[in-house]
């Protein structure tokens, strides 16, 4: 049975910490592959609009993972309309790949929010969770922690918001994002980058 980790997110833009988390999850949880799943409209971020459109975000993910043989992109959430609840998406993914075993990769801070996830009782029947520790945050044990396999990763407090802010003030994003993503952002003039 193939073991797949799902790395969901807006990836606005994808950055090197996303890749580090995915690789550490793959190695430590002994996953065969990690599938990056760009979100269409995450319910917990409905009030926030993605800065880059779905086409740009998916292309940046493709560029970031293109040289990693165990990384894939799935656009199942981008192909859906409206809010993307994880349970609905994973029901669709499990139906498409019934012989695969799926784990959803989340930050340690999201473990405490699992009780608030839409249809969590159904979701834990479909997937396990791989939780990674975020800087300055230690998750509290809850009734959901038996569904979570925790991994240790080097602490790296990097966010897509920080990357966008660096671009907007004209600072370098080299080593924050893969070089192909940096070039794509510049060429496309994303986040206020000066096209060169």
TrEMBL record:
One of its GO terms (molecular function) is nicotinate-nucleotide adenylyltransferase activity. It catalyses: nicotinate beta-D-ribonucleotide + ATP + H(+) = deamido-NAD(+) + diphosphate. Pathway: Cofactor biosynthesis; NAD(+) biosynthesis; deamido-NAD(+) from nicotinate D-ribonucleotide: step 1/1. It comes from the Bacteria. Residues 6-165 form the Cytidyltransferase-like domain. Pfam families: CTP_transf_like. Its EC number is 2.7.7.18. NCBIfam families: cyt_tran_rel, nicotinate (nicotinamide) nucleotide adenylyltransferase, PRK00071.1-3, PRK00071.1-4. Catalyzes the reversible adenylation of nicotinate mononucleotide (NaMN) to nicotinic acid adenine dinucleotide (NaAD). This is Probable nicotinate-nucleotide adenylyltransferase. The gene is nadD.
